[in-house]
Amino acid sequence: MKATFYLSFILLLSQKLFAQTDPITQIHGARNQGIGNIRVFDNSAWSHFNNPANLPIENQTQIAVGYDHRFGLAELSTVNFAASIPFGPGSFGFGIARFGGKLFNQQSIGISYSNRIGIASIGGKLEWFQTQIEGFGTGNAAIFSIGGIVELGPTLSLGATISNLNRARIGKNATQRLPTGVSLGLTYQPIPPLIFFTEVEKDILISPVYKVGLEYSLRDWLDLRTGINSNPGRLFYGFGLAYEKFKLDIGFGQMNPIGNTSHVSISMDLDK
Hints:
Layout: H1 2-14, H2 30-34, H3 47-50, E1 62-70, E2 73-87, E3 90-100, E4 104-117, E5 120-133, E6 137-153, E7 156-163, E8 181-191, E9 194-203, E10 209-219, E11 222-229, E12 234-243, E13 246-255, E14 259-269
Antiparallel strand pairs: 1-2, 1-14, 2-3, 3-4, 4-5, 5-6, 6-7, 7-8, 8-9, 9-10, 10-11, 11-12, 12-13, 13-14
């Protein structure tokens, strides 16, 4: 009975919210959460999950761990790990993530690669995705995602990404497909300390989500962030602290009347 009730809750939540919390379509990394749940732009190891085209290059080997806690429910929390390793004109990425609790959980493990060609970067990700529902069984799927970034000028970039391009099903014998999302974004840096982000995200089953965010570098070691989303309306804010090889990012989200989310991630640049 408990498993049936919990599954019903998850399916109800999925109509508007769950599509942005599972490991496929959620945004990873507290920085990205703090600037408004922005997916397309973030030149860090978390790009393995968010947009594989944006993995760090130029001798930037990086590892990162993170934890997301949503709406006061342990069953909606995510733990994740990401790494990026430069290789030739691009980088390899690797990531592991687990979402959920005992009754319902999803886990992902995958590899990615980005390649830079002139002003553009393209990337792809292949991952193995597993869904477990107590009393209902386990489903496995292979998922392919792609992304791209184009530098339109020294202060302006355009990017896009498609997650679950192959529209994989939740399991071999299942009819339900895992979420497929498309994101298109633009970033503008009018002055060195300030960056503006805009993005639209569209899951094929729900209405578009519009996002706006900004980040301001108050000091070399301190970044301040905020952002907003539509459908549903959400407010985000956060900050980042840097010290030598390490960076701590903390982000928060608010959505009435469901509650708050909190996100924390720590990264280390092994080449510094």
